[in-house]
Records
---
Amino acid sequence: MKTFAIPTREQVTPENQAIFDTLTKVVGRVPNLFAVFATSDHALANYITLSNGKSSLRAKEKEAVNLIVSQVNECAYCSAAHTAIGKMNGFTDDQIVEIRKGGASFDAKIDALVKVAKSITENKGRADHQLVENFYAAGYTQANLIDVAVAVGDKTITNYVYALTQVPVDWPAIPEVK
């Protein structure tokens, strides 16, 4: 398989250079996976628009979805990235590992969210009906379920880009979870 080089700022379009500049200001660097998106003239901007779109899910809830989807899709890059981001959103190391294993005994509402997101991912959108009912019983709405589907899609995109490119993981190492 042809290896993907990680483009530098000078190697991308002026539009992507502007995004690189913003990422550097916000994150302190351009993460390798975002840089490889810039191999396309449009993919990075399109992805960031999707990822930063409004949602009925709180940031912590989105991170729980990001963690379980990345685990199900076996994405080492996104699992590492969202472990770091999950900590920034208030999850402990133990909570992150538990979410990656498919549950959240520390919070019944997040547990229902993680379980439904896992089912959506594993079953290609055909979530287990009982898990959807449990999601609603935990206090979520139909609007929330649609936003979970969007969050699963968002994370699946990055999981697939990593699977295709195998760029080096430039986030802190994390424990393996089975």
Note: The radius of gyration is 16 Å.
---
Amino acid sequence: MSDRTAAVTRETAETEIEVTLDVDGDGDATVDTGIGFFDHMLEALAKHGLFDLTVDCDGDLEIDDHHTVEDVAITLGQAFEEALGDKRGIRRYADRKVPLDEAVAEVVVDVSGRPFFEFDGAFAQAQVGEFTSHMGQHFLRSLATNAGLTLHASVTGENAHHQVEALFKALARALDDATRIDERRSDTPSTKGEL
């Protein structure tokens, strides 16, 4: 198996971002976005997905958290797309349901090359620290769009911290499962021959 790694940069008038990703890592993360809770979520994504991840983002936080969260998701999505290449041998589909105290999140993913996102749920509080709760949903949408994922997600609960964290952990486990190599497969998992 070749290295499934990527290094992606993005620079706009709103953000400057550098991301490195190793899909077959150990769960090591070095993250600095300027938003403490978002850093915690990205670290959880790496830890529970066993991805090695670095994210360095200098964003316009004097405005709000939107551009930083969205642009990190875009860049990370591009990194997954690059690292997975032709997707030869991957399992492709996965679903995970993850609880965190009273909250439960479910993520169903198809590494299809066809971006689609569906979300069901509402966050119990508008903010978690400096992180706008709705940006958890927007992160998933932006990641799916740029990684070429069909991604369905849902969440219930009474605490937005728990809800968002459960979503990131469910995403991590589903992505890890879907991107794993199936030793029985030597081709791309599609009757079309490509994804």
Note: Residues 5-179 form a domain with the Ribosomal Protein S5; domain 2 fold (CATH 3.30.230.40).
---
Amino acid sequence: MAETPNRWEGVYRSKEEAETSWFEDRPQVSLELIAETGAGKDAAIVDVGAGSSRLVDCLLEQGFRRITVLDLSETALRMARARLLLDAPVEWVAANVLHWQPSGRFDLWHDRAAFHFLTEASDQDAYLRVMDRALVASGHAIIGTFAPDGPASCSGLPVAGYDGALLSERLGSGYQLVRSLSHEHRTPWGSVQRFHFGLFRKV
């Protein structure tokens, strides 16, 4: 995540959507956790490191109308955007989250499998500073990562694995863990990757 977007541009230019290990036809765990926050349809939601995820499609179907989708790869964002109506209420942001300066604040921060690419403490700190500035008081953060017994790398990059305790410690006292959830993601070719999702509330 902290590097230039060339690697991710290459991934999305060379593979079909369903050829990536992280592909989900419907991101059910994310949708359930978003519902658990009680967010209304006018809640401001950002999906960080979204790639071409179909979460935005599902949120639009549910009536959400203040959605921001952020990723390093412009190609990935174009893939997602091409599925939607031209006037869909979505802001598309091609940026590195570590240096992002959002124009507004959010009720809900969602990240499935971006934070775990940050293996350096300085990058993790930068990410968390951006998240903290972006979230309103009592806002929610959903962070999905590989579990401690999940893969040690993804797309040739090392990753950091977390459970609820490790993620809570990393986020610090400004965030209360609301729910800790283990999940087995099945890739398009049938292998299983162990994930952890943490739902947090900003204190």
Note: The chain is about 30% helix and 30% strand.
